[in-house]
Write a structure and sequence with these properties.
With 518 residues, this protein is of the alpha+beta class. The chain contains eleven helices and 20 strands. The radius of gyration is 22 Å and the shape is globular. 31% of the residues lie in helices and 26% in strands. The protein folds into two domains: 215 residues, no CATH class; 165 residues, no CATH class.
Length: 518
């Protein structure tokens, strides 16, 4: 008899191998260099068994997105066969935003459905009016890009070229989009092959039983850790920025014997702006904050997820009704949900929760037409500072909380796109003061070499990352556009602007808050 933990760890490594296959075969720097993708293994009931250490906002949303997709498949009488793959990016089904294209495949062994493999990858462009498809001015989801309902992209190991052409023809960079989709197919093929090898080695009964034990263990261990928290109700509020308005996200967190209940009653109604977060994003951000506070080696699978109950009133920015735009809900609102849940958890576990990190992904979308290479689109998120924490200063110049990506190396960006970087450095002194200071943000600046359209979707320009236990807040973010011949313009946190060759964009990301009185 083999230890269930050995099989569970092997399954988690399969998810990691899927990620390697996706990264190595992708065409876009966003996936190839920044690793903006995630992979997971699920049992035949759609329960998450194991996932790779990829992007938090993807991983938590798999629970919602896969359940929605399998429900759609059943409701529409679709049968999944060996070698089929479903593609979907509709956020109200897949659980994040249009750029995150999800590919789900069943795993059969000797004619029996035993598992599913799934991956999400942030496609740099999925259509819409702006390069990168993240439109700061969108008022509906139809102004953000192509919506793909669940559809079979691969049928019994054969790619449906008509579906593939339909998808990539609606993007501004069809060659890159096609290449990235095929990389996602390669990742699932890797996962299917490896799961079958695992079952061939240990037997279907042993593997499936081990998966169930891993899920049970995840729940038992999570509840045990939560049992160390004082039972009670803890409240917090934080804000997003939209033009001159502050948009409240309010949370009431209850610690009980059965786990954690998180209620967002009192949160802002949904907006005609791309800051609405679909339920998959909301659950993901909540579970991320809870998991981080628990610490330790708790399996992040259905067992852990089952200890968290989220109530997000319909029609709010944490559970909008279609066709509300949602591009920034995945990016910025997820960060604020994590911040406000951490703020509540700081009352539960004051010596386990850091001060607020930068609180923004600082999304940069730029593109245009190159006479030699055709249309180009570039997407990047820029890191900041993490908050100070009990016993240690925050970390400077890293991606914080709901993003777990790398940066795009300057050499790769300049070789791939008509831009020239003029600065890339730590933003000294931007971390909040405290007994343990917040990490500093980043200064990253570039000039355009061709006419281009730039969009920025960011936050924490007005509301500073909070300190805890007497620590001071971190410095807010800032973006400056210098138009030739030298006119300097301070920009809001969300905008679109046309650039001419030689125009310079200077981006300064927030620092983290300080922890403890300075």
């Amino acid at each position: 008899m083999v230890s269930w933990e050995l099989i569970y760890r092997a399954t988690a490594f399969i998810a990691e191998e899927m990620g390697v296959a996706l990264k190595r075969s992708a065409l876009s720097p966003n996936i190839r260099e920044r690793m903006d993708h995630s992979c997971a293994i699920l049992d035949s009931s759609g329960r998450i068994v194991a996932q790779a250490e990829h992007i938090p906002v993807h991983l938590g949303s798999f629970r919602v997105g896969v359940a929605n997709t399998l429900r759609w498949v059943e409701d529409n009488g679709v049968s999944l066969k060996d070698g089929d793959m479903i593609v979907v990016n509709d956020p109200y089904i897949a659980g994040t935003h249009l750029n995150d294209v999800m590919l789900l495949a069943p795993v059969f062994h000797e004619g029996r459905l035993v598992a599913y493999v799934v991956n999400k990858a942030h496609q740099v462009d999925v259509g819409g009016p702006v390069p990168g498809s993240i439109n700061p001015k969108a008022r509906t989801i139809y102004e953000e890009g192509l919506i793909i309902p669940p559809v079979k992209l691969v049928k019994e190991w054969n790619v449906d070229l008509e579906i593939l052409r339909l998808i990539v023809s609606n993007t501004k960079t069809p060659q890159v989009s096609s290449g990235d989709l095929k990389a996602q197919m390669a990742a699932n093929i890797t996962g299917i092959r490896k799961v079958r090898e695992l079952i061939d080695k240990f037997g279907a009964g042993e593997v499936l039983d081990s998966w169930s034990k891993a899920i049970d263990y995840g729940r038992t261990l999570a509840l045990k850790r939560m049992g160390e928290w004082e039972k009670g109700v803890y409240e917090a509020i934080d804000y997003l920025e939209l033009e001159d308005n502050l948009i409240p996200i309010k949370v009431k967190l209850e610690v009980s014997v059965g786990g954690v209940n998180v209620d967002f009653t009192g949160t802002s109604p949904q907006l005609e702006a791309p800051l609405n977060a679909v339920p998959g994003v909301t659950f993901s951000a909540v579970s991320y904050a809870v998991r981080s506070t628990l610490g330790g080696d708790i399996p992040t699978n259905e067992g852990f997820y089952s200890t968290i109950n989220v109530h997000a009133p319909e029609g709010t920015i944490v559970n909008p009704k279609k066709p509300a735009p949602v591009a920034g809900g995945n990016l910025e609102t997820s960060q604020r949900i994590a911040d406000v849940v951490f703020k509540a958890l700081a009352q539960v576990a004051p010596h386990s929760v850091p001060a607020a990190g930068s609180g923004t992904m600082m999304n940069v979308m730029i593109g245009g037409v190159d006479e030699e290479k055709g249309y180009w689109a570039y997407y990047e998120t820029i890191g900041g500072g993490t908050g100070g924490r009990p016993g240690r200063d925050g970390v400077s110049g890293v991606h914080v909380n709901m993003t777990n990506t790398l940066n795009t190396p300057i050499e790769i960006a300049e070789r791939s796109y008509p831009i020239l970087y003029t600065a890339y450095m730590i933003r000294e002194g931007s971390g909040g003061r405290g007994a343990f200071k917040g990490g500093d943000g980043i200064i990253r600046a570039f000039k355009t070499l061709k006419p281009a359209r730039l969009s920025i979707l960011a936050d924490r320009f007005k509301t500073k990352p909070y300190g805890l236990q007497g620590g001071e807040p971190g410095a807010p973010g800032r973006v400056t556009v210098i138009k030739t011949p030298g006119t300097k313009q301070e920009m809001p946190s969300k905008f679109t602007v046309d650039l001419e060759p030689g125009d310079e964009v200077i981006i300064e990301t927030p620092g983290g808050g300080g922890w403890g009185s300075p």
